[in-house]
Amino acid sequence: MRPTNQRFAVSVHILTLLAANTENVLTSEAIASSVNTNPVVIRRTMSHLRQHGLVDSRSGTSGGWRLIRDPEKINLAEVYRVVSHEDLLSMHNHPNPECPVGGNIQESLGLVFDRAETAMEAELSKFTVADILQDTVLHAGAGR
After folding, report:
1. What's the pLDDT score for residue 86?
2. CATH number of the domain that residue 71 is part of
3. DSSP of 4-30, one letter per residue?
């Protein structure tokens, strides 16, 4: 089984949680409780989101994290690009160049992978953090 990269899902979770709590700052511990992970993982993720202008923090006893952009203006393709450090679809490194397939597979698959990733980003760009928040609130109201 392939290892999964959960940075995108965790980042959307965090941004949605912050969008639901615009009146308050949230501590890394409070966010970690919602995500069900260690606060260290949250702080690492938050640092990256801060570098890209999505969140900010306030230190001190009343400190914590807050969303600094309108959730309706943060589309999921942007979040994906911010947190994705490696390609979702990646090529194997050493096909046999003497083989008719091995010698050409990277170029052929590269075109397919580029188109697939472009299509995925186009689909993600149709949704915002506000959309995800609205959907989670709807599901919470339905007793899910």
Report:
1. 62
2. 1.10.10.10
3. ---HHHHHHHHHHHHHHTTTS-B-HHH
Q: What pLDDT digit, counting tens, does each position of 55-72 carry?
A: 999 888 888 999 999 999
Residue 95 lies in a domain: no
SS3 category, 2? coil
- Is residue 59, in this structure, part of any structural domain at all? yes
For helices 28-35 and 39-51, what crossing angle results, to 10°?
110
Could you tell me which of 96, 81, 90, 31 has the C-alpha nearest to residue 57?
A: 31
pLDDT tens sequence across 1-41: 344 578 899 999 999 999 999 989 999 999 999 999 999 99
Q: 75 lies in a domain? A: yes
Owner of token pair 């202008």: 53
The domain total for the chain is 1
39: containing domain: 7-86+128-141
Residue 23 in domain: yes
* Better-predicted residue by pLDDT, 43 or 144: 43
| pTM for this prediction | 0.84
Torsion angle of the four alpha carbons 62, 46, 28, 77, in this order, in degrees rounded to the nearest 10: 110
Work out the end-to-end distance of the chain between its first and last CA atoms, rounded to an integer number of angstroms: 30
